[in-house]
């Protein structure tokens, strides 16, 4: 399962654990290793970048301990391909075998023990990238950021998740103008959405009250989406919802951990990103920004870049390269 992927991105083969560890420290995450068996030169590593996420396939070929002091501002999807890997946290211990996966959160500290035959696929996702996907998918992000439970998922039994992972790995191996032109971002976003839907997290608890239980917020969100190109005000939303401005701010803080103004801006940015990415009638960034009531173009470009990691002109150029 998945073991044939990333052969195109081989970094080292039949080498020492120290050499693999040095590369991992530079490109995957900060850690230290200590051997628990007589060392052999059977370590292997493949690594590549794909639309702001890192893909690595790693096998130390030795029984060893890996200490990770802190996953700084990144998530890890760690899939055990073969052998076993033990996670020791401050308050619990988890053991994964071939075909099982676990999501790791930013800031988590852990000790791992690899069996000599352990091989893993690690997908490194920067925190801003996942937050942006969550914002686009759900309209907001939990105040503390997205945090996954320590839930072990059997990837071999989750065909949909496995298919998304395989699709990303296939695209990463492609060397084509089409992939470089923007398809990679779509594959990445689909995978991240699938991770949000597969692994339990605070996103599920956070989303339920607004989308299911609170009819007032449902009316507000519908009004925003139906009038997304207008210059919406908080006072207008309060009038639509039939509550005071103060009450509206309270509900947005409680359920979305954001303000009405920020949520409106985020949904406008998401709509512009979709237009710049796929709407052939949009040929000018200024035109698109003004159509969605962004009048300060410098501030618009800055906000867009913070969310999507690139300028709106870059998004438009990629789409025009495919037209």
Description:
- The protein is of the alpha+beta class and 323 residues long.
- It contains twelve helices and twelve strands.
- Strands 1-3-4-11-6-9-12 form a seven-stranded antiparallel β-sheet, with helices on both faces. A five-stranded antiparallel β-sheet has the order 2-5-10-7-8, with helices on one face.
- A hairpin with a 4-residue loop joins β7 and β8.
- α4 (177-198) packs across α12.
- It is elongated, with a radius of gyration of 22 Å.
- Residues 176-181 and 206-213 have low confidence and may be disordered.
Task: Give the secondary structure arrangement, pairings included.
Blueprint (H helix, E strand, L loop, with lengths): L9 E6 L1 H11 L4 E4 L7 E8 L2 E7 L4 E5 L5 E9 L1 E5 L4 E5 L2 E5 L5 E5 L4 E8 H12 L14 E2 L4 H15 L3 H22 L3 H12 L1 H12 L7 H8 L3 H12 L3 H19 L6 H7 L5 H12 L3 H11 L1
Antiparallel strand pairs: 1-3, 2-5, 3-4, 4-11, 5-10, 6-9, 6-11, 7-8, 7-10, 9-12
Keywords: DNA-binding, Transcription, Transcription regulation
Organism: Parathalassolituus penaei
Protein name: AraC family transcriptional regulator
């Amino acid at each position: 399962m998945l073991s044939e992927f990333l052969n195109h991105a081989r970094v080292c083969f039949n080498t020492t654990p120290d050499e693999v560890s040095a590369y991992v420290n530079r490109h995957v995450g900060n850690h230290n290793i200590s051997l628990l068996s007589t060392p052999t030169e059977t370590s292997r590593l493949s690594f590549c970048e794909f639309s702001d996420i890192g893909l690595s396939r790693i096998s130390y070929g030795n029984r060893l301990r890996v200490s990770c002091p802190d996953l700084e501002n990144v998530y890890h999807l760690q899939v055990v391909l073969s052998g076993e890997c033990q996670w020791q946290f401050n308050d619990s211990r988890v053991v994964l075998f071939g075909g099982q996966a676990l999501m790791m959160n930013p800031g988590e500290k852990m000790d791992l023990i690899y069996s000599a035959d352990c091989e893993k696929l690690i997908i490194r996702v920067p925190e801003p990238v996942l937050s942006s996907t969550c914002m686009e998918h759900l309209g907001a992000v939990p105040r503390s950021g997205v945090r996954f439970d320590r839930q072990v998922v059997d990837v071999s039994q989750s065909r949909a998740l496995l298919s998304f992972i395989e699709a990303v790995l296939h695209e990463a191996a492609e060397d084509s103008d089409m992939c470089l032109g923007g398809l990679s971002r779509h594959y990445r976003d689909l995978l991240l959405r699938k991770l949000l839907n597969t692994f339990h997290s605070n996103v599920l608890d956070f989303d339920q009250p607004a989308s299911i239980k609170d009819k007032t917020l449902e009316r507000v969100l519908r009004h925003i989406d139906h009038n997304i190109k207008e210059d919406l005000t908080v006072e207008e939303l309060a009038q639509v919802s039939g509550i005071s401005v103060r009450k509206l701010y309270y509900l947005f803080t409680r359920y979305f951990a954001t303000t009405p103004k920020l949520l409106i801006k985020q949904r406008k940015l998401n709509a512009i990103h979709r237009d710049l990415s796929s709407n052939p009638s949009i040929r000018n960034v200024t035109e698109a920004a003004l159509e969605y009531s962004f009048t300060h173009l410098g501030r618009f470009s800055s906000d867009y870049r913070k969310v999507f990691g690139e300028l709106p002109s870059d998004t438009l150029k990629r789409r025009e390269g495919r037209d």
